[in-house]
Batch of 2 targets.
Target 1
Amino acid sequence: MSNSGSPNRPLARLVVELYDWIGRVRGSGLLLRREGFDDPAQAVRAVDELGQFREPAKAIIVWLELHGRDTDAAEADDAMAGLRETARQYDAGELQSLFSERSDEYFDPLDQLIEAASRAAGRLEDLDGTIPHTLWRGFGDA
Amino acid sequence: MRDPWPEHIRRLLDACAGQPAHQVLTSAGWADLRRHCGDLAIALDSLGRRTIAQRVDRDYARLHEQLREATNPESTAASLLCADAVAELASTLASIQRFQAVAGAPRASGPAGIAAASQNPGSEPKRAPEARRPPPTLTVAAFIEWTNFSHSTLNKYARLAKVPTPRRGERNFRYTWADARKILETIIAQASDRRIRDKCRTALKNPPEITQ
């Protein structure tokens, strides 16, 4: 991600980017596609993939703190930290397949990573709904 | 305020990812980083940017802890955690640099500043007249009335937040506003019960009348 988000609503932009990423991972797993049509896809680490969201998220968190919205910043921080921890567990092979009685199926580690990312995106989306748009004025100028 | 994200600190953090942990921890560059983070946190704190000052402190402390862990070459998990800690501190410093114009301006601390921020969320709060007075404080009863916590919950999280707590039988104990916020922020960060976390968020948004 080259941009830290839309100048108007960076948090909403981050949420969209996260959902896009979730969609890609859901469709083709954690694979890096090369340019050429016959280039082999390469497996990538979850922590490396999620690295693209770190700076945009941190900029949002610091901006919220600078504007006295510490609890909102803590919520965003907590959502991202939870996702990063699941990604670390995924890469370290610490996630085991889990049987979900509710959906009557197994959730493999990738499903759990996707679930964690969806949860984080949902929390950020909820947070975005509580923050006045005027708070982001000046964010994109820096 | 000094440059939050100078070139030599960037280089050092890059090196953290590539060099053995013990080499990083014993380098002169590491001493520079410690000094830099300490000075930056003090500068931010003096400008009323306490939460961000705490973030710098926390990110530095976490990286230090992870590097010490990483001196154990057997641990794969430690290397991932260490890389995460490096990237977290780097992104914090980079964001402070990015918003230096805002971060370098003083802001009011305490309830008046928070109230000003929530009334006018798009702009920087102006320094409140209360900022020149002695720090505001909260009695235990006022804290409990404000948050609806029990005595035991308050004490438990005050200890976790490492703020002073009343001694057994002590009367007239008062929490400083900064410590009160620290307790609530600790609960938000650590409590597993979402209702308690929500209660704290609500409390922070609705500061009580503070007495001196």
Note: The longest helix of chain B spans residues 76-98.
Target 2
Amino acid sequence: MERTLTSGAILGDRPRPAKNYLNETKGIWSWMSTVDHKRIGIMYLVAVCTAFLIGGIFALLVRLSLLNPQHTLFGKHWVTAEMYNRFFTLHGVVMVFLFIIPAIPASLANFVLPMMLGAKDVAFPRINLMSFYLWCGGAALGITSMIVGAVDTGWTFYTPYSTTTDGSVGLMTMAAFILGFSSIFTGLNFIATVHKLRAPGMGWFDMPLFIWGIYATAVIQILATPVLAITLVLLLIERVFQIGIFDSRIGGDPVLFQHFFWFYSHPAVYIMILPGMAIISEIIPTFCRKTIFGYRAIAYSSVSLALLSFIVWGHHLFVAGESDLANVIFSALTFLVAIPSGVKMFNWLTTMYKGNISFETPMLYALAFLFLFAIGGLTGIFFATLAVDIHLTDTYFVVAHFHYVMMGGTVIAFLGGLHYWWPKMTGRMYSEKWGRIGCALVFIGFNMTFGSQFIMGGQGMPRRYFNYLDQFQPIHAFSTYGSWVLGSGLFLTAISLLASLKVGKLAPDNPWGGTTLEWQSSSPPVVHNFEEQPVLEHEPYDYRHRTVTHV
Amino acid sequence: MAIFWLSVVMFLGLMIPMCYFAWRYRYKPGRVTPHQTHSTVMEVTWTVIPLLLCVGLFFWGIIGYMQFAVGPGESMEIQVTAKQWLWQFEFPDGTRAVNELHVPVNKSIHLVMTSEDVLHDFYIPDMRVKRDIVPGRYTEYWFTPETIGKHVSTCAEYCGKGHSDMKATVFVDTPKDFAIWMETGGDEWMHHTPEEWGRIQYEQKGCQSCHNVDGTRSKGPTWKGIYGKPVKLNNGTSVMVDEAYLRESMMQPSAKVVDGFENIMPTFQGLLRENEIRGLVAYIKSLQ
Amino acid sequence: MEQQFDTSKIGMWLFLVTEVLTFGGLFAGFGLMQNRYPQEFVEAHEKLKRLAGATNTVVLLVSSFTAVMAVLMARTNQGKKCARYLWMTVGLAGVFMCVKAYEYTADFQEGLFPGKYYSHHGDLIAGSHGYATFFSFYFMMTGLHGLHVLIGMFLMGWLAIRAKRGEFSDKYYTPVDLVALFWHLVDLIWIYLFPLYYLIT
């Protein structure tokens, strides 16, 4: 029975092409040697989701270890401190390097960005494929490291613990090094693409905001990642040859490692969040059927976040023993970097004002993003305030803060974008009912898991702790139960999406009535994206010229 | 707490409109949406006001921070040495303690800290004391304890297996009690049997990070069932585990290393009082 | 075609930016360590072979010139001359590597090794870690630079073979242009390295 789509979809009245990028060529070699950005995006999607699963399993193990202070399950001891230290380290390493840095840029943006520009592919398709294989290589080394002895240093690899502990630190460092190059080449590709491959008539301020966000991300990727690369090389050499710049016993300075590390890793968190914000800037105007408010402000805020992100790294070192002057300067700069994010929030909210809003799964994820990122961002302010940082740093409060921005921000946006572009990428509609149930479970489970951690942190529960005082047990248990709810929501979402590949309704070209160019192609798109070169006819997000036909 | 309430206000300021807009502007077929692209007035307002709030918070944060970062003239200096996985405190007169810090109330304390191995962090949640401890240099912190009583301190920079066990107890004493403690190392030991006092030392002085009492091996040999029996050393000889052997093991651990274990035990010379040593010996003796 | 040429040039410039940041990290680390051990660094740098370093600087500068000439030849349809200039560049790079090899050997004979392997005797501030640190940075940076020189040599050799076969013309000389760009960066990095290590007092 035909269902009226509440979103007032624009259904292409042209026939669905028989051949599209998925079935034009067949066989595993055609995928492994492809230079089609869409296929590479799909391969990356599978890869990062697998990484998310592995990282998620480690997360569940971490929470399970902390269910009670005796570390028992049904009365049996099952985990030791050494095991626990590896669980949280591997959770961090897999989630940061294998999942969240590449996730949105390499999978969703790879697919959508050229299409939004009206282009046939990215600037360097073979380098795109090489990026993917570098990811695979890094992943292989990382998995080898996990099997051969794993790592227990925390994902931050602070020296001198990381230069002296046993375990497979060398392999893991090399894995991260290779993954860094994967990230650099993706960024390089996107910058060149945005500069050179825009459709005729598309100036910088005619581009969708998603592109601005990805472009800003790419700038950070190529400027910051090389510094991580050299830091990891220095760490590795220090571990093997003991050259002595990080080890005080041979004349080095452990805090120097922290400076080098965070000089990359702080911009890195903006690599994580800017693509998420970019997705939200697409979803909200589409589902509110209203032009985005403050286009230029959002575009400029993306670029300014990218630039400002490079000068705040010292806020990770407020208690590390650095000078008071340095701490004061970094505190001021950190407050400054909060402002552009706030501007975006206000702009998105104002877009909703007097809109015509429907609540399909992508929009639900966007609303969840606004809620969760607000909490994450505001708690960041707590840390920028020097006096408060002293009390809260290295406690569960900071763990909760960064999960709210990274998971409540980026992962939620990723899931929203995945649902938003699912019909375009696969040619199938996912089940709206299960999409919404999954979103609700994820939202509730997430808040249970991490909201409670704010409370623990404020009460003085330190992070990376295997043993803890009995007073924290109820909160730890609650957080663990929350992780089960969260996990089930994610699992359900995955099943529902995969099932849609078989049983989902065939998707129209433009199920949501979006105004950006990717919706002008078929779902799924043909190999060269568009049957004719698209030409831009109006401003981005212009809903005045929509003609809406219903089913 | 002020930041918390300010954040709550800002959060509600964002979420209430969001929920209201979601309900009020829910989809109605045929509704036309206005083409609002920007409003300079609004955008400048919501950039400038948060900026001013941030500037205010920034100065407020510095004021609080300076209290801990810059000490008043007259402070009692305490040397803190952190190592995997225990705390050593040394007072100006040479008194040393392990995992137990006594400070007189209302006196400014100046902590001068270093580590013997990896990064650690001395954290007293009740008193907003937190500072990393870096090997190869000294880091400093000032604080003035105001509440008499017992407080927990923990390590707040991941340092390996024993990171979450690295606790010390901070006793904030009246000046009189503090003086007594400095003189005699306190009188608590007189209220326990030697075995019980030994067990307390086992837990508090860091012995348990490396020695188990249930028969299993850890970084060091177990204490269960060893007293009165011979033990094999790594040089092939055998020695009887008696009081003298146990004392030597605490003061000069490298002198005799048990076969199959590494020579990694730190010395407790100057760190254990006589009553504590006797207690430990009695405790080990009782573990048959 | 022109769009592709422009695009690939952007790609190469972006890659060069990442190289600058990689070496930049090492330069920053060197600077910080020099601050920590000023006297040891001054004393240590006296032990470097200044003549060899200066020779290498001249060699690389000339090689940048031959690289530019190679691009010019490619653009003006003179494939054989382009190949010749490319081989000259490779040759000069080879001279650079030989001089470095000589330097390293001489350093090792004096016990100047990186990190824990440093075994030189007779330093003024005996027991200080500053000397070992200086040489750790020296070997790391010149080593990484040398790796880039080797990579450049391979790339230019490969291009020389293609140039001789007539693959480049005024319509298509992109690879020569891009590799020459890469080579200029390699040269530029040495221009910073040489005074920093060999000349600072």
Note: The longest helix of chain B spans residues 40-69.
